[in-house]
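During the reporting period the student researcher (J.K.) took over the structure-prediction task from the postdoctoral fellow and processed the backlog of single-chain submissions. One of the processed entries is reproduced below for the supervisory committee.
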Amino acid sequence: MKSFDEVWENIHATQEWGKYPSEQVIRFVARNYYGKERHSIKMLDFGVGGGNHTWYLAREGFDTYGFDGSKSAVEKVKERLKAEELQADVRVRDALELDYQMDFFDCIIDSATIVSNMYGNIVKMYQETYRLLKQGGKLYSITFTTGTTGCGTGIELEKNTFKDITEGSLKGRGTCHFFEKEELNSLLETIGFQKIIIDSLRFTDRENIVEQFLVQAEK
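J.K. obtained the following structure tokens:
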């Protein structure tokens, strides 16, 4: 079963993408894991993309893992890590075909990878994060809301899921499901996550609205 959209291979093969971590991820990691024995904390970057969060986690001394469906993305991340003498286990994998052990990770970070899919696959990916987390492990997930420019454009695949989006920051970036808050909270609760916190972030990018849910949850 495949979830990876080849549009992302083209993007990573031809463009520079996300070299530095987001402030939101840094804040989450700092609040929860700074001051601990970082080398013993297993972190998974769920879709490495440009490698910004894999690089950050490795640089900060965590036991870092990551994957992506894009071979070009993984090759670029490995080259950067090698050049800076940083260590991380980075693999080419589809998000629905992972081979990590059950109950393996202390933390999983998803920076808008899961949301770039059909809803059925999104459910399976969140279920997979739950399976991979240790008891008490934490998930940090960034999604897009229905208030984001581009929602409602392109080809509608199902409710609030569109591909070939024609407007906004998600234009030309394959498929995206735009979440409503109660829908997202209900999904995570059904899977079994606890202590769910859903914050929101809204900003404009070249006059386009970007609205995200910033999710924290615990197994």
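The committee noted the following: Residues 7-218 form a domain with the Rossmann fold fold (CATH 3.40.50.150).
J.K. will present the remaining backlog at the next meeting.
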